[in-house]
Amino acid sequence: MDEIDLAGQVLAGDRLALARTLSSVENGTTQGMQALNSLFPHTGKAHLVGLTGASGTGKSSLVNQLVLYYRKSAKLSRSKNDEPPLRVAIVAVDPTSPFTGGAILGDRIRMRDLAGDPGVFIRSMATRGALGGIAAATGAVVQVLDAAGFDLVLIETVGAGQSEVDIARLAHTTIVVEAPGLGDDIQAIKAGILEIADVLVVNKADLPGVENTERALRGSLGLARPAPKRVFHHGQLVSVPEQDEPHSPSGAAWVPPILRTIAIDGTGIPELADAIAAHRAHLEQTGGWQQRDRGRLQAELDLLLQNRLLTDFRSRLKDGTYEDVLAGVLERRISPFQAVDELVKRNR
Amino acid sequence: MSERKIRVLIATPGLDGHDRGAKVVARALRDAGMEVIYTGLRQTPEMIAEAALQEDVDAVGLSILSGAHMALVPRVLELLKANGQEHVRVFLGGIVPDEDVPLLLSMGVIGIYGPGTLSDTYVTDIRRAVMAAHA
Question: How many domains does chain A have?
């Protein structure tokens, strides 16, 4: 299969071509990048929904129930009754071992009810060294699935603790999943993962302590919301465009709803689907959809530009210059800041 | 950056309720630097082939202790082929009587690894078979 064929087949709905394209893109091969270039004009239609939260809160089980619901209830997820159910892609990320580079990707275990449905595509991904809760190539994989015509792409992050917030940059709507018994209200007011939530879910709501968890979340929301949503990404502060920014025409801020679910029996799933749809509608009404798109693509562009400029810069340095300056830093003769000045000066 | 990771699907087809061996193999392959998609118990051949396709795996490991291997394995091979995934290498673990081994190998199964097999054995076999399939 040559690459033009590959992209064409993805657009035509060929699932094997799609699976292979996803691998090529994930592996960063030339073929993958070429396919992505051909597919990119077809992206921008899918609603990208992120799910994050600590290990064992039930993210995979929630994804299973949510997608089952989407596939069974066309009329509730779309405006018109006669439209077909949403086509849903799932990207499930699990961690790569920092020691061996291997990974066990186990999210499919909880998604067995989705097997055999041609309107669903599940892809597991390993983080391959990335620390933000998703892999470096997750954004590109999501773009391929978007181009392939899925209406909704659900991205499940690794079991995330407090700072794996890259998903907020990637998704239009971020769902943070909590469960009873995972910590007191100080956990809830710490910086990080709760701040990125557009929808908060307390899963395992049949367990004791659910009222306390919900109360702690509700309390923390009132304290944490006024801060503008910006995320440190690769050491840079990246804006996550928010609906309560000045040029939002309606001026109404989105208050993240707190929902109770029981993923094993599906309790609360229709309400979660409604909240996701409501957030999408809100983004569309307030211009937040375009703002998030812009924020995401700009961050991606900046990162690629950074990498390219660094490669170009180093290739233009005379042999030995870089090592020379680095040696100066190692010997503590110059600081890293002085080293950068030196490199730029010598490169002129 | 473009280093190719070997991706392996580990599944327990049929009605087996025992997945200790499958987990041991999954862990050993992980420690060998592979990405293991673990699907768990009670998978039908259709579910296994579908997962192998979506995940674009290089190999599929089936754990079978029920004695149903002569029904399940040909079906999985047939479905992989029907999906255009002839290149996917299939190996077995669990309990397979010696007299069935030659027939399974002739169908294209790359190896059958019963209890007590050293992990080095199947790690090397899988790596070699996957390299050969992509050569």
Answer: 3
Half-sphere exposure of residue B83: CA atoms within 13 angstroms, side-chain side: 28
Say if residue A64 is in the same domain as residue A24. no
Give domain status of residue A194, yes or no: yes
In chain B, how many domains are there? 1
Look up the domain containing A21 and give its range. 1-42
Q: Does A211 share its domain with A85?
A: yes
pTM over 0.90: no
Query: Do the beta carbons of residue B92 and residue B61 sit within 8 Å?
Result: yes
Domain span including residue B28: 7-134
Distance of alpha carbon B95 from alpha carbon B107, whole angstroms: 18
**Mean pLDDT of the A219-228 span:** 61
Which chain A residue is nearest to residue B38, measuring alpha carbons? Answer: A106
CA distance A227 to chain B (A): 37
pLDDT in tens, A149-170: 999 999 999 887 666 778 888 9
**Are the C-beta atoms of residues A259 and A272 closer than 8 Å to each other?**
yes
What is the ipTM, given to two decimal places?
0.92
- b/e per residue A260-270 (b: at least 16 CB within 10 A): bbbbeebebbe
Gap from A303 CA to chain B (nearest CA, Å): 16
Query: Residue A231 pLDDT > 60, yes or no?
Result: no
- Kind of pairing, strands B59-64 and B89-94? parallel
- Range A220-246 average pLDDT: 54
The DSSP annotation for A309-348 comes to: HHHHHHHHSPTTHHHHHHHHHHTTSS-HHHHHHHHHHHT-
Give the closest residue to B95 by CA, choosing from B18, B32, B26. Answer: B18
Q: What are the helix and strand counts (H, E) for chain A? A: 13, 10
Q: How far apart are CA A322 and CA A200, in angstroms?
A: 48
**Among partner residues A100, A108, A126, which is closest to B51 by beta-carbon distance?**
A108
